[in-house]
Amino acid sequence: MNVKTALVLLLLALATIFALVCVLLTRARAPGACQQQPLQQEEAEDGRSRVFADLTPEELARVVQYLRGNLGVPLADAVRAKPSDNCIASVDVQLPTKAEVLRFLDAGGARPPREALAVLYFGDQADPNITEYVVGPLPVPTYHRDVTVQKYGGKVPYHRRPVTGVEYVAINDLIQRELRKAPRFLAACCASDGTDLATITTAPRGFKSGDRATWFVLFHGVTGTGYYVLPVGLEVLVEHEALNISHWHLSTVFYNGLYFSSTTELESAFVANSVDVIRVEKPRDDEVLGSMRPQHPPGAPGPLQFEPQGPRYKIRDNHVTFQGWSITFGMNPNTGPRLFNIHYRGERIIYELSLQEALALYGSNCPGGMSTRYLDGSFGIGRFAYELVRGVDCPYMATYVDRHYLAESDVPRTNQNSLCIFEHDTALPLRRHFSDTHSLYYGGLRKNALVIRAISTLINYDYVWDFMFYSNGAVEVRVHATGYISSSFLHGQGINYGNKVGPHTLGTMHLHHIHYKVDLDIDGELNSLESHDMGYELVRDPWSLQNTLERPFLRRERLQRENEAAFPLNAPLPRYLSFTGPNPNRWGHLRSYRVQVVSFPGEHLPTSSPMERAISWGRYKLAVTRRKEEEPTSTSIYNQNDPWTPTVTFADFIDNETITNEDLVAWISVGFLHVPHAEDIPNTVTVGNGVGFFLRPYNYFDKDPSLYSPDGIYFSSKQEVGACWANPIACLPAAACAPHLPPFRYSGFLNI
Questions:
Q1: What is the pLDDT of residues 317-326, one digit of tens each?
Q2: Beta-sheet strand order (sheet of 505-508)
């Protein structure tokens, strides 16, 4: 071996050793466990947010105990109560007046007494009615007062009460008894004896006040799948207004375009061969139309969002803080998520931000579908916000919070992990600029947001409720619809009302309308409303007078009265509509927040409809009214079952009062038309099915407050781009760590 060959072999050996050392060093630097970083100093929270807090299970139990001992009438447990019984229907927190709360929060006043609102059904009385009591003080009640007349102007008629679980069970038993009277028809049409058919309620229930007659649509019930898309063509109308359940009966039966007075008549018509029967076989589990079972084996896990040094938000009880934001959160069992006392950088900008109602209005050529106008608050938007699935419904590392409620039972219930809070990286810059002229630099900021989320399952539909808070002081509120479509049996001219999505399934067209209340307090309680929009003016060119040009100009207007500030659904909305405070910013403009609606709603109902007043909030994209304690909500849970004489009529809120320098509320409607199509099977996807609105600072600050975000980066061509002090992104490799993932658990089926 000559010297040259020996040197080559030596160099190869050294290169191999060097490569092995690099591999070992790389492995030695494997990410360690993430270390929790100290939280930023946020606004002090000394428990004052408890003034808005939902009731605890202990408080709910104390209210039930007090009512049982102090009303002087027998109370059945609502979980077993018949319509002819008295029972406690629900208990929720009774919030103090805004004046009381602000005296306590801002002026050092006394903490308002903590109270509950109890709804009772009095069926065992000469004049059955619904009565609401305020009970307090908590935690040990000593008084109650009837507030029904004060709130509604009189007793609430008993027929307006939401249908209880006990009633639904009794109705299902009645339907099963009636189906047994048509055995040959059921065998022919549905390959069934009726016991494996599932039903869905419709609403409202009749044609006039006092009616309580409901169409129930029948479907093939296949375990583990969405039966909502498996109609068999049979629908029944149940009369259930009587207090005595034994008096309930079927008054009409519908099948494949024909109406019958009973299942007995239907059976006779079938035997006489006068019914055109379309056989709908019960599908096998592995072939069922609505199955959500994955059709592909699991693959490699997708990207995971986690906090390298722990969450940057802080939660205490019902209060969360994050980079200048301070938010109090809760859940109304009927209307769903509600937020209060929202501050940014030490100033209150929103007193209340709450969901009010969700309307789903259907079309069909079957009676159940064509008569359905669901008002989901009456079913329980918050009550049916179940446990969230970690890693799908919310990021795996989100914080999950329990919610407690009492409805249709004397025992409080808990929906575990039913609200989630997390910081979300949207993978988009909030702002950025790359300068390639004059000087070379880059400045930018990630678009991160704090998200508060809940998801409600309301029969077939699932609604994802999001409240998002950004570092520029903006708030985004949005809702996505998913879950199963509702469907009708396809017959006759069914495709005039939707699309065929299965062998016998018509995906029925429908509207989603969602209503929100936003009590903005911009630089104080007293605000005004201004619109800014663009117009054109024809002017001569100053430098060339023989020529003209169309110059855009800013049209400014202050809206003086409520009627001016009620914007009908199909009328143009000013592109800049702002709540203004009394004081200017540094540049002389009134400090303001802009309301920006992103929505595609259809007409909620013609105003000529006898039930339109019950959902008259749907007339308006946006309406601004003076805030009144006697107008706390835009609707009522009692409107669903008596829309012909609504308990609360939103249109009456708009009575042309002045809205200049007043405490104002924005009522915002968002929605969209959904025409189901083949891709809605098995489930409607959230992509493209989301609407909402923004609340954005508009001259509220002197400059963009996101400049004070700790996430901003800036570097120039003359700087070291990897310097952590200028570019926090450059620090990420040193902060690399492996998150500690809690084990996946789910107990959401326990409370059904």
A1: 999 999 999 9
A2: 487-489, 505-508, 498-502
In SS3 terms, 524-575 reads as: CCEEEEEEEEEEEEEEEECCEEEEEEEEEEEEEEEECEHHHHEEECCCCCCC
What does each C-alpha distance from 707 to 154, 345, 589, 655, 710 come to in angstroms?
A: 54, 13, 20, 43, 8
**Contact by Cβ (8 Å): 169, 78:** no
Element (H, E) at 25: helix 3-28
* Phi, psi at 713, each rounded to 5°: -130, 150
Query: What are phi and psi for residue 173, nearest 5 degrees?
Result: -60, -40
Beta strands in 137-183 (DSSP E): 143-146, 156-157
Q: What's the rounded Cα separation, in Å, for the pair 610 and 474?
A: 40
- CB 159, CB 212: distance < 8 Å: yes
Which residues are CB-contacts of 651 (< 8 A; sequence separation ≥ 6)? Answer: 613, 616, 617, 619
Quick one: pLDDT at residue 201? 98
Mark whether 362 is an active-site residue.
no
Residue 564: Cβ within 10 Å count: 15
Domains and CATH numbers, the chain: 48-160 (3.10.450.40), 165-272 (3.10.450.40), 324-357+370-487+516-533+555-708 (2.70.98.20)
Q: How far apart are CA 612 and CA 343, in angstroms?
A: 37
**Backbone CA torsion sign across 58, 93, 97, 695:** positive
Whether the bond between 606 and the residue before it is cis, its omega within 30 degrees of 0, is no
Best CA proximity match to 386, nearest among 411, 355, 421, 415: 415
Q: H/E element holding 733?
A: helix 732-735
DSSP states of 323-348: TTEEEEEEEETTTEEEEEEEEETTEE
Which DSSP category does 490 fall into?
-
Q: What phi and psi, each to the nearest 5 degrees, are found at residue 151?
A: -80, -40
How is residue 476 written in tokens? 């985004």
376 contacts 357 by C-beta, under 8 angstroms = yes
- Which of 133, 344, 374, 461 is labelled catalytic? 461
Contact yes or no for 692/22 (Cβ under 8 A): no
Q: What is the pLDDT of residues 250-286, one digit of tens each?
A: 999 999 999 999 999 999 999 999 999 999 998 877 7
Q: What is the dihedral of CA 228, 229, 233, 239, to 10 degrees?
A: 20
Among residues 54, 85, 124, 376, the one annotated as catalytic is: 376
Q: What is the pLDDT of residue 33?
A: 58
**Is residue 197 within 8 Å of 219, Cβ to Cβ?**
yes
Classify residue 139 by its DSSP letter.
S
For the record, the structure tokens of 411 come out as: 């025992």
Mean pLDDT of all residues belonging to the chain: 92
Given the structure tokens 């109304």, which residue do they identify? 332
Instruction: Please tell me the distance from the alpha carbon of residue 506 to that of residue 494, in angstroms, as a whole number.
Output: 7
CB neighbourhood size of 436 (10 A) = 9
Report yes or no on whether pTM surpasses 0.85.
Answer: yes
**Three-state secondary structure call for residue 435:** strand
CB atoms near residue 750 (< 10 Å): 12
The alpha carbon of 379 is separated from its chain's Cα centroid by a whole number of angstroms, namely: 14
**Spatial separation of the C-alpha atoms in residues 421 and 516, rounded to whole Å:** 20
Decide if 702 is catalytic.
no
Q: What is the number of residues in the chain? A: 752
What letter represents residue 678's amino acid? Answer: A
**Encoded tokens for 23:** 């591999």
Specify which residues 723 forms β-bridges with: none
